[in-house]
Amino acid sequence: MSSLDKIRKHYNWVSRKAFPFTAKDIFHIRATLGAIIYTQPYKTYCRKYFKRGSNVLKSRSADKSTAFSCDIKKYAEVSVLSIRNFFGITINKAVRLKQAAEEQGLIEVKKQYFKLQKNQVYAAKKGNQYRDESQNIVFLNEDYYIQQIDKIYTELYFKRRKKIETL
């Protein structure tokens, strides 16, 4: 059994952030683990692609749009394949963890679909087959769609761990 500090040193992790568990989280450990696994790439995506506000204080009269910008949920595209590659778990396990986290309300998931014309379905299936990709073509409401990367939104936060020193 390794301590968290030894694991951090082995994998060269710089950040000392951790998720604070509660009793509710322990009873739904798979959902909590799924939410934590999907929150890390979500936060990275948000840092990279969403603009941050400036550090300069603004008066309300100068900029009235700041009151409304806090209410907008920003969804990030987090691929199951990236979770598989980064954490070394199977695609099925990554999907099940995401579904468990969504059922517990820890993350929100928006499915994205691109509508296909009837004459494009065969070509899309053959293209995926030749590229050795999974068949992500679904039939919904009497039409064919290509399922794209899901969009994730989460409000989980990580706390900075204090450095524990031995005596």
TrEMBL record:
This is Uncharacterized protein.
